[in-house]
Amino acid sequence: MKAIILAGGFGTRLQAAVPDLPKPMAPIGDQPFLAYLLRYLKKQGITSVILSVHYLKEKIMDYFNDEFEGLKIDYVIEDEPLGTGGAMLHSLACISTTEPVFVLNGDTFVKLNYRAMYNQHQNQETRLTFTLREVPDCSRYGSVLTDETHVLGFKEKGGVGRGLINAGVYLMNSDLFHAYPVAKVFSFEQDFIYPYLPSLRPHYFLAKDYFIDIGIPEDYARANRDLPLMMV
């Protein structure tokens, strides 16, 4: 199994707590957040990773080089910010495979069974599978509307109460974008998922374990408490 990690963002909300570092390199104990994520992916059966990098890319590339604890690493460099969708498209073009590929954010850690998600994706013969996670308050993220198997729609941020959120891990066929008119720079959600949702008919996989997005200082502090204990 292969994975693309989007690690090129500026991380503006976290810069007060972690200046002069790309967000995936935010220290958790004596290691960067990305090290915990890569280690977990390897344990889940991921054999190779593409890191899509832009902002302060040398900090990531110099630390990890082309291998981390036996996990093969390649890099796709964004010469300019491409948006989430543009980064995915650019990275997929560099992978010589017809197999589905996991795509995830470099600032989010989700405990889930990657092999089970992969098998479900194949059995359902879908082109795109979301990872969803139920949370007690979805106001920060917005919520996802579903039926028994499909993602049906989205509610914007601001709604309160329990709900399903997009956990930021996708499994997609490598030719997902081929049938759609997409620009070089675009948002995966705003410019692709929202307008093409009826024809995409994505499925979803429920993650029921630990989830954290270190995009804000409060959750970054929580990751510093949680992850070193979790990965022992």
Major β-sheet profile: 8 strands, mixed
Tell me the structural class. alpha/beta
Q: Mean pLDDT across all residues, rounded?
A: 90
Helix content: 25-40%
How many H/I helical runs? 6
Percent of residues in beta strands? 25-35%
What general outline do the C-alpha atoms trace? globular
Integer-rounded radius of gyration: 17 Å
End-to-end C-alpha gap: 24 Å
**How many β-strand stretches?**
14
Strand order of the largest sheet: 5-6-4-1-7-12-9-13
What is the helix/strand order? Answer: EEEHEHEEHEEHEEEEHEEH
Low-confidence stretches: none
Oligomer: single chain
Describe the structure.
It is a single chain. By secondary structure, this protein is α/β, with parallel strands linked by helices. β5 (67-68) and β6 form a beta hairpin. It contains six helices and 14 strands. α3 (83-92) packs across α5. It has helices at 33-43, 57-64, 83-92, 114-124, 188-200, 217-230, and strands at 2-7, 27-28, 31-32, 48-53, 67-68, 71-77, 101-105, 108-110, 128-135, 143-146, 151-155, 163-172, 203-207, 211-213. The longest helix is centred in the last third of the chain and has 14 residues, at 217-230. The radius of gyration is 17 Å and the shape is globular. The model has no long low-confidence stretch (mean pLDDT 90). The strands form four sheets. The protein has an eight-stranded mixed beta sheet with strand order 5-6-4-1-7-12-9-13, sandwiched between helices. It has a two-stranded antiparallel sheet with strand order 2-3.
